[in-house]
Amino acid sequence: MRTKEFLSRLEHDRIVGAIREAESKTSSQIRVYVQRGKLSADPLIAAQKKFHRLGMHKTRERNAVLIFVAPRAHKFAVVGDQAVHEKCGREFWQRLIDAMRAHFQNEKFSRALVETIEETGNTLAAHFPKRSTGGNELPDDIIEN
Q1: pLDDT tens across 113-131, in order?
Q2: What topology does CATH give the domain 3-144?
Q3: In what order do the strands lie in the sheet with 29-34?
Q4: Is the pTM of this model over 0.90?
Q5: Which of 50, 65, 105, 145 could form a cystine bridge with 80, CB 3.0-4.6 A?
Q6: Quick one: how far is CA 110 from the chain centroid?
């Protein structure tokens, strides 16, 4: 699917709202990145590189999560920083990926992203509750590049 078509089918406000709601319960940061054009690399490696290029590894508690989607390549990945890996484990990532895959196969793109954001937010809130100090460290918008 062409990236432009994918983006036109997303409910941007709903997705950004889900990010804001999820982050209201946790000190973690969640971002969505949509890769334009072809993707020749493994999506997990591409997501990890993008995570660093976006400076997501610089959050105060090292607890940011990136949802990476490459619509043209029909690939996606979810990556998190060091503290998230330590607290949540491999099963967390697999659960997210499995749910996203099912929704993407049924072309329920916004639902895939919103439910992944909600599940991520709920899980992270248990490990990284919202603190009174520190605010939103990263923008909540969908990144398109």
Answers
A1: 999 999 999 999 999 999 8
A2: Diaminopimelate Epimerase; Chain A, domain 1 (3.10.310)
A3: 75-80, 64-70, 29-34, 142-144
A4: yes
A5: 65
A6: 12
